[in-house]
Structure prediction request, 240 residues.
Amino acid sequence: MDDSRWRAALVAEGDAIAAIPVEAYGAPVAACPGWDVARLISHVGQVHRWAVGFLRGEDAPVPRPGPDNLSDWYRESRDLLLRQLDGMDLDAEVDTFIGRRPVRFWLRRQAHEAAMHRWDAQDAVRPGAAAPFDAEFAADGIDEWLHVFVPRFLARVEVPDDLADAALHVRCTDVEVAPWTLRLTRPQPTIESCAASAGTTLSGTAADLLLTVWHRAPATTPAATDAELGRRVLDLVHVT
Prediction:
């Protein structure tokens, strides 16, 4: 995907978050135990402002929203991020939580942050009725999850001996994109964009696969050749 697609997604997904009705703010969010929609919206706005801090090279505390006008505060947070990104060279390197990366890392990350939590909020308000993800965008989200979050989370856990070198193959059935193979090699996982041999293959639409790897409930559960192995591999990586 190109930069304009990520920016458009950040705008559209942010608008959808801001449009959540106030009367739904108390609804519990299934994917984030203990959170309601209001806390979810606060979280996304704070993450946008946290990203701005990285982009500016600042280490200031991220402000919390007040009790009123959460929708306006969220929109201000999203717009602050957009203005910051629009004023920067997307090829320039900045700090991120995984080391130095181009500015566009934050554009992509925040687009997917807003998209997943927009889905969470809409699913909380009307379970099973959240707007679906665009297939190409969802496939990009899977790629980001694999290359950004999988190495980060696997560095924090001890992979069981019986999963050492286990492999998970992920294949989208509705968009032309190279499949991925995640192999739990040590000391770091190996991620390949090819149809390598694997202990289990997870296949389905890009949107359902994205929801699956993020531990959400997809409309149609992707097919797995070894469901238990797939579950155990995915359980090693939980992102809020």
In short: The first strand starts at residue 93 and ends at 96. Helices lie at 3-18, 37-56, 70-86, 104-125, 135-154, 206-213, 227-234.
